Amino acid sequence: MADPNLPALIEACAQPGCPLCRLAQGATERFLDNLFYEMVNDAGMRNQLRNSLGFCKTHTRLLLDTSLRDPLGLSIVYLDVLNKILSTLPQPDQPGRAAGLLDRLLRRLPKETTELSIDALQAMTPRSPCPACHYRDQYTHSMLESLTIHLETPDLSQALEASDGLCLPYLRLALEKSASMSGFAKLILIHQNKLQKLRDELAEFIRKSDYRFMGEGFGAEGNAYQRAMEMLVGSE
Length: 236
Ligand SMILES: [Zn+2]
Ligand SMILES: [Zn+2]
Description:
Blueprint (H helix, E strand, L loop, with lengths): L4 H9 L5 H21 L3 H9 L5 H9 L5 H18 L12 H6 L3 H14 L7 H20 L3 H9 L5 H10 L3 H28 L15 H10 L3
Helix pairs in contact: 1-2, 1-9, 2-8, 3-5, 5-7, 8-10, 11-12
One zinc ion binds next to helix 4 and helix 8.
């Protein structure tokens, strides 16, 4: 049976940047879009978001800086999260185990302080990963598996050779998952060429930045530093 991931992989290779980062970004945005559309009222997802204390830093920025921003959905999620933190924090004025601990902390009694610190730290520590990271990791896992399985089919290997290449984090994962030694070698060869080309472009940019050669003007090497930086860490 044909692998449904294959056409998406080949298509992403024709776009700028790391094809896997591009696919993962698109998939994560669709996930977040759906989340606010359908899942905010889903008890399982609400519970997951309470345990993860909302989203990670990357996905918080994504939600705030793009059209994914959904004030009502985000208010519902974060009301839950803040309630969870507040209800887990030790209550100074309530009876029970934690009663008076906050007062005693203020008076600095070491034994109770430790007990209180553990409760307080636990209340502020996520117990599960950001749901968007979790979804993205599952998605990229499936894409990486398809990539390594089909790496030696001409359509995919040619597309990958013509692409900007995988970023190093996904290249490392792809190498770890390699289905064969020849697939492993192919991945190395493709990316060695890309790294060499990028290195040459950086050297060319530096050469042209010298006042004696400024008249030559910049070509594709003008943004080589950006592509090099993204290749090292990914572009999500
Ligand atoms: Zn990437
Ligand atoms: Zn995240």
